[in-house]
Amino acid sequence: MSLKIVRRLIPEWGTTYGPAGEGPFPAVMVFHGSEGAWSGWSHRNAVLLAAHGYLAFPFGYSKGGNAWNAGSIENVSLDRSLEAFRALRAFEAVGEKAAFYGVSRGAEHALLLTALMAEEGLDGPPDAVAVHSPPDVVCGAFDSKAHRDAGDPGWQPWDPGERAWSWRGSSENLLPTKQIEIERYDGPIFLSHGSADRVWSVDMTKRLEGRLLAHGRKPEVHIYDGQDHIPTSAAENLHHENLLTFLERNLLAS
């Protein structure tokens, strides 16, 4: 029996998942959240995308960690993420189009990197950007070793006193609470959020949508009624249908 989904290694960067055959295939760079690179969720999302015709690259950007510890999102170099995206675009199995897909902190990562590329007018921006449960502002650092469950004394989703990201060797322009200026990007954008999200309020996606509309952009927005940060099976199925339709329209259409 032949494999329908195969792994391919981007030398020095990591594994990808894609359809069998020579390709080339449209690509999606997948950004994990605070669960970290080792948790497997971004690989699971990559395999789902691969099953639908995409070469998906789950990019591990969190620092440290292992199979039992998510590591941290602190002073993560977005320059390195840009290098990884360029390596993906240059990969022999990848076609002309490539997108970003991120969830939660991965959504923040995808939006920030896109906005910074647009601000500097860099070549080769993503052909589409899809995010689920995004914040609309830069957030502080996250360290899994210090994490507490909601309701525990001292609980907070991130540390406002520490910086999560750096760009061009500095974090000074990426301070917590700064707006993510995704309106600088003029490509197709997919935003989705659960209306009952207790980690990132759905108001964040609504503010992103409002700013995009005010700048003449036309984002595709899906609000999933009653859904928390992690959706139910039925809601996740609906989300994947919406996501795949968006990617097909923007990566597969000639």
UniProtKB/TrEMBL annotation:
It comes from Roseibium aggregatum. GO terms for biological process: acyl-CoA metabolic process; fatty acid metabolic process. It comes from the Bacteria. SUPFAM superfamilies: alpha/beta-Hydrolases. InterPro entries: AB_hydrolase_fold. One of its GO terms (molecular function) is fatty acyl-CoA hydrolase activity. PANTHER family: ACYL-COENZYME A THIOESTERASE 1-LIKE, ACYL-COENZYME A THIOESTERASE-RELATED. This is Uncharacterized protein.
